[in-house]
Amino acid sequence: RSAMLKYEAAVSVLPDDGQLWLNLARETLAVQPAANTSDASTLPANGTSAAFNAYKLLRTTKTRADVLALLGNGLDKRDLYRPALQAYEASLALNPSPAVQADYADLKARKGFRVIDHTVDADTSAPRICAQFSEDLVKTGVDYAQFVTVDNAPPKGVE
């Protein structure tokens, strides 16, 4: 926490120093929030804000990739999983890093697009299953029937 406070003081003096913002983001996201405090939400929010400021100021591909990976970590802590995945993807596009790839894969496995629940209605003349996904599907222009099979054949209908 003391490093975070020192970087906060430093960016107040040198607000155009992207490296200071990056270090502030890193230190802020590294702080373990105290139990039963608002730190659990405040620290990740402040960390992602600092990372965003760093991204705006830093210009090299490597540092931008580092900032985007840090942003992904902070967004994950804020339960903003889709933007976190996108930040990791952008980081990997700039600089393929095994550590970032591992963080991305872990988050995608935990919170990526998936079936989160389902119901089965088998006691009718036309049995059906309803799958609830973690994200909304595109409502028009996509034929989802190709992703569903019944006894290795296309189903009679997908709604």
Our estimate of the beta-strand percent is 5-15%
Please describe the biggest sheet, giving its number of strands, its sense, and whether it closes into a barrel: 2 strands, antiparallel
Taken from the alpha-carbon principal axes, the silhouette is elongated
| Residue windows where pLDDT falls under 50 for at least 5 positions | none
Please specify the SSE layout and strand pairing.
Blueprint: H1 2-13, H2 18-30, H3 39-57, H4 61-77, H5 81-94, H6 98-111, E1 115-121, E2 128-133
Antiparallel strand pairs: 1-2
Helix pairs in contact: 1-2, 2-3, 2-4, 3-4, 4-5, 4-6, 5-6
Give a brief rundown of this model.
By secondary structure, the protein is mainly α. The chain has helices at 2-13, 18-30, 39-57, 61-77, 81-94, 98-111; strands at residues 115-121, 128-133.
How does this structure look, described?
- The protein has 159 residues and is mainly alpha-helical.
- It folds into two domains: 2-111, Alpha Horseshoe (Serine Threonine Protein Phosphatase 5, Tetratricopeptide repeat), CATH 1.25.40.10; 115-147, no CATH class.
- It has helices spanning 2-13, 18-30, 39-57, 61-77, 81-94, 98-111; strands at 115-121, 128-133.
- It has a two-stranded antiparallel ribbon with strand order 1-2.
- A hairpin with a 6-residue loop joins strand 1 and strand 2 (128-133).
- The chain is elongated.
- The model has no long low-confidence stretch (mean pLDDT 92).
